[in-house]
Amino acid sequence: MDEHVYEQLLRAVDVCHATGSLKAERDAAYAYCEQFQQTPNCVSYAFYLLQQRGHASHHRHFALHVVENYIRVHWKNCSADETVQYRSTLLNIVASHVAADEPSFIKEKLVKVLADIAKRQFPQRWPDLLEQLLSLWSMGPIQAEIVMLLFRSIAEDCVSSSFNSTIPPIRRKDILQGLNACFPTLFPLVYQQLEMQYAQLQSPSADHKTANAVILAALQMMKEFLDWMPVNTPASPDTNFIAVASLLLQSPALQHSIRIAAAECLEVYFSRTFGKDHLALVVATTQTCWSALAQISVADVNDSDDLNLHLHVNRVLVSWGTHQLELLVAELPASHDVLLPFVELLLRFFQHPSLTVTEAQVIVWLNLLKQKKVVSSLLVPHNVLPALWRTSMDKYFKLHSPDRDDAHPVSALEFDDNDAYVAFYSNFRGRLYGILRLLLQLQPGVGLQLLYERLQYVLSAHARGTDALDEHGHCTDSSTAHLYHEGLVALIDCIMKSLPESALNEASHLATLSATVEALLAYETPDPWLLFRHCLALSLFAKYYMRAPGLYPRVFERLFGLIVFAQPGETILTTMDPTTMNVRRRALASLISICHASPSHVLPFLPILCNQVIGLFPVVLDSESVLLYEMLVLVSNSLPTADERTLFIGQITAEPLASWTSPAMTALVASPSSLVAAMTAKDDALVFGLVKVLTTLYGIARRIVHGESVHPFASVWPVLLPNLLSLLRTLQTLPVEQHTLFAASDNSDVRGVLCMSQEEVVQALVGKEQVPALQPDLLKYARWAKNVRDIGYHLVGCALSLPSFYALVDIPSLASMLDQAVLVHMETMEHRHWKSFLASVWLPFVKGCPETHLAPLLEPRLQRVLLHLSSRLAPVWAGSPSPTAHLPMLIGLDMQATTIDTVQNAVVLEVVRHTVDLIEALVDAKTVVDVDSDHPKHIMMEKDRVRRDFVLASPALTHALTSLLLGVLMWRDTLSARRSAILLDRLVSLLFGRLDLGGLLGKDVFTAALTALLAHFYDVDDGLKWELVNLLRNIYCRLTLGLLPVDECKGIDPVNQPRKRDEDINPWPRQLLLGLATVETGHVVELEAALRQQPSLKAQKNLMKEFLETPFLAYRDAPHTFKAIDDLPEALVLPTKAKEAHDQHDDGVGLLFQR
């Protein structure tokens, strides 16, 4: 060894860690250290350093890093003698060169290096690992701690079945079997060590730091073992680790880290599957655990450590409730003494001030409330339901933000600020909704009474805002009164939506509802924040109004009065405050909601509504008048005859149609030049009147509900469509003629018709960034163009979705309409328009096109759109910028370059996601049925099946669809990629018998799935990865092996399915697997045999995943990976059970914990 090099290395490490060293010095030191690690004898220097006394911790840590890196890079090239020497040296360092006060990061690094060797050699090439480690164990507590940490580290990566595992599957199994053989010897020693160190903690004069460290290491090791060892081993009489963990968890004098580790052990253990064979074991361990948890107080949460402990204790309860509840419920009433303490503990933690604790329990309470035996024998007799009602309703109010002065201290521990609290709360309230829904099924009268009581409290105690008021003295979103009213309305929404229909037949329930509505109608306030909630609350009782129709006039009178609400100094001719507009819109929406809930009950009041609407037209805004039309249409749907409905629709559409077909409007929409000319002339009445007319007509059309008779809007389409198609053609042509319409130096505001609106930009940024407007007048035209295009698309889509429309127009005319107005100039359409184009026109067209029109009308146009999308998205798949013509024109807004990039990426993302929507509608359209039941179903209607079969019968359409899906599959958006994988899997299941598609499915799709899986190999969220694995499994099983899923094996033994003929076998998937790194023919043969023997989808997916792990590891480039870990050729031979059972522990073990 060169002393000069050694000293130089120490100085370099010092410089790297010195806070005062210059950047140039640190860079040089880093470079020297990296260069040193490339030298062939670097490991000798590292071992020498580690065996010398007096070196600083950072020197020792670097030396361990050198050893770790050397092992990972050079292990394959080391001789057998060298490997033995390296591990012996490391064991010697643990035995003789580790101080009692060694920093934890040094111990962890030492454990990591030893674990790296064990993962490569144990047990075949390191058969005496246990004996060597036990000899270390006997040297002292620090060595015992390191040994247990080593076992933990070895088990951690082997037990994990995630994709991030760095050990090949066969190696993992060998290691786990080797560890399993160690249990009989190891566990008594661990138990003895726990007992000894626990006794040390009881002695005031003992070394508590070492004792705590050893106990923590033992618990962490056991946690990794508890997930897979035999379930009876941890609870055996001589080494009852479950009793030990329960004792440690309940001991308040112990460190929080130890108690949390004990809770984690119990959580893992109770997540196991026991089965009836181990029922007595479950009962015994559960009772031990419950008696310990009963000693833990949840009253005081002083700091984050207390909260963290309670969170982990709660996880024990949730784990038990999720995995063991069903087993014990089946044994009622015999299991009463086990379930009652569980329910009491669960309720105690449900009432915990932590919202996180409460949320975690919801799934367990939902299960409990669905079990009739549990409700009748436990929840009702022991008064659990009243506490559950009270806590659920209390926490339904959003009053616990850490920014509030009266917030519970726990809230500040859980949430950084109000934004984090609000983000959490929306999901949290939705979970409480589920509990309240089930409680209402059990006790509807109790729910209605509690709602009434809380409404009385809120309307009396918080009738006005008292804090966080605005300059007008009104509430803001953080005012206490507003929070109470918001929570009350959310609670009303939950109660009324969940209330069983049968509950509305009882007089007592109707009386409570009557009192509740009367209290609402009696409430008055000028505060717009509270009025907004008031309007919403009135609409939520629509189900009750059907039983008390006399309330309709009073409710309508209140809401009509609020439609014209204005604060002092405001009129429709001036700019209104946003809070004013919110009240007016909410009042309108509430009226529409009530009429939509039961138009037949409102029908007797239609004349009154018409008179009110006529009187309101002069004093409401254009957008509000549209909503008034919609309300009338909803009620008119209940008119008794088709003639009456048609007559009514004709009457209310007469005026807007007259405006729409006027000569001025016809000239306006005729061409881009006439449109630009009108805007330049500031003819705002005509230009912006167009928006009101179209919005009115669309509002009327979309609210019509028709049966089998003639559609009431049928007579309107022939009058409406000519100018509508001219308008769409004009909008589509604008980008083509922009250089003619606008000179290069033209800075007029009319250019806004070509620009992206401020609202679209904000939507693209998901509201996370405010974009100030620099040219409001220009953006006014941008907003106009966006709104007009959207409404135009909506109207066309509305027509194409109606079966009656296809009877009005012949196929050639329909084809001409689509070609000349809708599909014209697609190549110049910006990406941002395709969201509305696909969602509003093509989805309704695809779903509404009659079977007779599929071939002559839908197919050629669909193929044209799909081919255009493939061309449009080709640069996206390649990672290249989109053409400038496809990107939005961003003018008049104050935007940074990074914001512009975000907006451009967002519009591309929308095109991709809506393309997937279109493909899904074509090949896997589903309709939700039984929506109001507990188990709604997604089924394919016969019409959707016919359309799917037609589309897939066309080779051109099938190739176009698949090509798009393959591009999505390998793109960066994992949500779209996952949906693409699901749709491709569906295509494989439908088309696997088509030999003409063998290359497409067996080669192209299989290759893309492999490529995508490799690209996402490191992802933590494995949802996409499992879909890709399933896609690969499906292709291989169906195309290459001829295996059908179990549910498709009608009259066939799934394990003995007939083999495919050689000429029917698709060879591509097998060849592609054989082309992967490290894969040999024998491996594929073994995979195929296993796939045949295990027909379940879950087993086959696991087989495919484990098969791919090994070759994929070879493709990983990162130097810190375990790609050097190989399967060992030696067969695994373990000692006999008789030898394992030899008693290794002292007779007195366990007396301390058993006392």
From TrEMBL:
GO cellular component: cytoplasm; nucleus; RNA nuclear export complex
A biological process term (GO) from this entry: RNA export from nucleus
GO molecular function per UniProt: nuclear export signal receptor activity; RNA binding; small GTPase binding
SMART domains attached to this UniProt entry: IBN_N (SM00913)
Domain Importin N-terminal: 29-116
Short name of any one Pfam family annotated for the protein: Xpo1
Family from the record: Belongs to the exportin family.
Protein known as: Importin N-terminal domain-containing protein
The species this protein was found in: Saprolegnia diclina (strain VS20)
Record lineage: Eukaryota, Sar, Stramenopiles, Oomycota, Saprolegniomycetes
